[in-house]
Design brief:
Blueprint (H helix, E strand, L loop, with lengths): L11 E4 L9 H10 L4 E7 L11 H8 L5 E7 L3 H10 L4 E5 L6 H10 L3 E6 L17 E5 L15 H10 L5 E5 L7 H7 L3 E4 L1 H4 L4 H17 L3
Helix pairs in contact: 6-8
The structure holds D-xylitol-5-phosphate (DX5) and zinc ion.
The site of zinc ion has 6 residues, from strand 2.
């Protein structure tokens, strides 16, 4: 299992299972893993926090048996503290919760850490960076949403990029900064230049004719954006 906290590689892709062909999910996951993906992003939706329902712990548990990737669960649910344990038991390595639903964010972070998983905190597009002031030093990852959560295939909201840069400045060497939503060949460079280092992409990987090639192309574009080489 790769150590998520490591700052190398500087750029990491996190393909989102949400856009896989679920009838052939195992094959889709294997293809990107063989192509070098180390993170699988798992979008869990409860139909309350977001207006959509996706999948839960049983599906993740099944996939856990056929993949060694780092399982990154993005919980778009109203009660992350209540359900975190079932996702860790299903094999998730990192649990991300939304700050918008957290009455006591520090308690949620501590609870997930006590389960032995890493912790991410996510901010919706208009949620300010200051909303995570009290826990930013405790989390392993910050996830900035670049679409309104709930659906794949939406248009990238570039207005979030200043927030990405603002948060990046406040993160330590072992914390990662993920961006999620509308990441594609036209948007990934701007997100990388703003400071994101971990890129979720669903449509732009799994809905392409050649998902491994699409993923590698995105990775190359992000790397070029931070090294100035194109
Ligand atoms: C949206 C999810 C995303 C989604 C991204 O609520 O959090 O992870 O899968 O999909 P694309 O890459 O298609 O925007
Ligand atoms: Zn997501």
């Amino acid at each position: 299992m790769p150590d998520f906290a490591l700052k190398t590689p500087a750029i990491r892709m996190a393909p989102s299972l949400l856009s896989v062909d679920f009838g052939n999910a195992e094959r889709g996951v294997a293809a990107i893993e063989e192509a070098g993906a180390t993170i699988l992003h798992l979008d869990v939706m409860d139909g309350h926090f977001v207006p959509n329902i996706s999948f839960g712990a049983p599906i993740i548990k099944s996939l856990r048996k056929c993949s060694k990737m780092y399982f990154d669960a993005h919980l778009m649910i109203e009660e992350p503290k209540k359900y975190a344990e079932s996702f860790v038991e299903a094999g998730c390595d990192l649990i991300t919760f939304h700050i918008e639903v957290a009455k006591d964010p520090a308690a949620i972070v501590d609870h997930i850490h006590s389960l032995g998983a890493s912790v991410g905190v996510s901010l919706n597009p208009t949620t300010p960076a200051s909303s995570i002031d009290t826990i930013i030093e405790k989390v392993d990852m910050v996830l900035v949403m670049s679409v309104w959560p709930g659906f794949g295939g939406q248009k990238f909201i570039a207005d979030v990029l200043p927030k990405v840069t603002e948060i990046k400045k406040r993160l330590g060497p072992h914390q990662r900064l993920q961006i999620d939503g509308g990441i594609d060949p036209n948007t990934i460079a701007s997100a990388a230049a703003a400071g994101a280092d971990t890129f979720v992409a669903g449509t732009a990987i799994f809905r392409q004719d050649d998902p491994p090639a699409a993923m590698k192309n995105l990775q190359n574009l992000a790397e070029a954006a931070i090294t100035g080489v194109s």
